[in-house]
Amino acid sequence: MVVRKAGTRTAPKCVVTDPLPMPLPPISAPAFADVDGDSVQDLFVGTTSGGLRFYRGTRSR
Length: 61
Fold this sequence. Notes:
The chain is an all-beta fold. It has strands spanning 2-7, 12-17, 29-33, 42-46, 52-55.
């Protein structure tokens, strides 16, 4: 969960967003990189058991 500022100085507002709407392992260590050179960020996630998960980024349609 991430809280970001929205609104103005005279009418402040905070919005709660979910930056990664996907389940990640607890105490994970996400890292973004464009590993396949397609100009889209891919995601690596380290797990508590020592494993590594890879999520290939795709373009929005």
